[in-house]
Design a protein that fits this description.
It is a single chain. The chain has about 270 residues and is an alpha+beta fold. It has a single domain, classed as Fumarylacetoacetate hydrolase, domain 2, CATH 3.90.850.10. It is built from 6 helices and 13 strands. β9 and β10 form a beta hairpin. α1 crosses α2. The radius of gyration is 17 Å and the shape is globular. About 45% of the residues are buried.
Length: about 270
C-alpha cells in the first residue's frame, strides 16, 4: 500500500469506529494485503483515535492466542490491537446494548507492566518478560463487529488487524501484585464466562500459548519488530480462554478467573 492508501484506510476506519455504523467490507483498493500493511494502517489509526478524543494508547490486546479462538476466527496465529484511555475501565460497568454493533465478551487474564520493556531485549520469552510485570488481574474484553459479517471472504484477517481486531473496551478486575503472591500459577487458573447466569464456556490460563506470559512475550517481540515497545503502566489483555460470547438481548455478562476474581458488565 502507498502512504496515501494507508492514510485513507486509517481515516475510513477511524470514521467507522466513531460513527457507530457497520460496513460490509473495506473498499477493494483499501483492503490491506498482508500483516505488514495491516499494522501500518493500525498504527496510523491509533494516531487518529487519540486525536479524536479517545485519549492516549494505554495498552494492547492480543487476539488468537488460544486454540479455541483460533478455531473460532479461523486465524492460526496471534494478532495485536491497541487500547485507549477511554476504553480501559474497571468492573462493574454498563453499556447501552443497542448502541453497540453486536457486542460480545471475552474472558481474559490481563497484566499491568511496571516499567518499559526495551526493544533491545527482544526476542523475549515467558521467563525474560516476567520481571516486567507488576500485577495481574481478571479481565473482560468487550468486542463489537464493525463489519457486518467477519466471516465474509472480503473481510480478511489483515482488515481485522487494521481495525484493532474487534476491540471496544477492556473491563478490569482488581489487581494482584505479582510480588504479593509469587506462587500464583497463572497457567493453572480456570476461567469461565456467563451470560445472565448461564455458563457459556470455560478454559485455563495454560490455553494461552502455554502461559499468559508467553503471549506477552510475543507482543513485546511483535512491537519490537515494528520499532515500538511496551511501556510501564501499559495494560495487556493476553487473549480469551473462552470463545467470544454474544448476548442476544440486553443481559448481564460475567467473566471470572479463579483466584483473580470476577468482572461484570451489564448490557442495558
Amino acid at each position: 500500500m502507498t502512504a496515501q492508501r494507508i492514510s485513507d484506510c486509517a481515516d475510513l476506519l477511524a470514521e467507522l469506529r466513531l460513527s457507530g455504523k457497520q460496513l460490509p467490507c473495506l473498499p477493494p483498493d483499501l483492503i490491506p494485503r498482508n500483516e505488514a500493511e495491516a499494522y501500518a494502517v493500525q498504527f496510523a489509526l491509533h494516531d487518529r483515535l487519540s486525536a479524536s478524543g479517545q485519549g492516549r494508547r494505554t495498552g494492547w490486546k492480543i487476539g488468537c492466542t488460544t486454540k479455541v479462538m483460533q478455531e473460532f476466527l479461523n486465524i492460526p496465529s496471534p494478532c495485536a490491537g491497541g487500547m485507549f484511555e477511554t476504553g480501559v475501565v474497571h468492573s462493574p460497568v454498563s453499556y447501552n446494548f443497542d448502541s453497540l454493533r453486536r457486542p460480545g465478551v471475552e474472558c481474559e487474564i490481563a497484566v499491568r507492566l511496571q516499567r518499559d520493556v526495551p526493544r533491545s531485549g527482544a526476542p523475549y520469552d515467558r521467563q525474560t518478560i516476567a520481571p516486567f510485570v507488576a500485577a495481574v488481574m481478571s479481565a473482560m474484553e468487550v468486542v463489537e463487529e464493525r463489519f457486518v459479517d467477519f466471516r465474509d471472504p472480503s473481510v480478511n484477517a489483515a482488515t481485522l488487524i487494521a481495525d484493532d481486531f474487534f476491540h471496544f473496551a477492556a473491563v478490569l478486575g482488581p489487581e494482584i501484585a505479582v510480588d504479593e503472591d509469587p506462587d500464583l500459577d497463572l497457567a493453572a487458573l480456570a476461567g469461565q464466562t456467563w451470560i445472565d447466569d448461564q455458563e457459556r464456556g470455560a478454559g485455563h490460563g495454560v490455553d494461552v500459548m502455554g502461559h499468559p506470559f508467553a503471549a506477552l512475550a510475543w507482543l513485546a517481540n511483535h512491537l519490537a519488530a515494528h520499532d515500538l515497545g511496551l511501556k510501564g503502566g501499559d495494560i495487556v489483555l493476553t487473549g480469551s480462554i473462552v470463545a467470544s460470547q454474544y448476548p442476544e438481548t440486553p443481559a448481564q455478562a460475567v467473566t471470572e478467573i479463579a483466584q483473580l476474581g470476577r468482572v461484570v458488565c451489564d448490557f442495558k
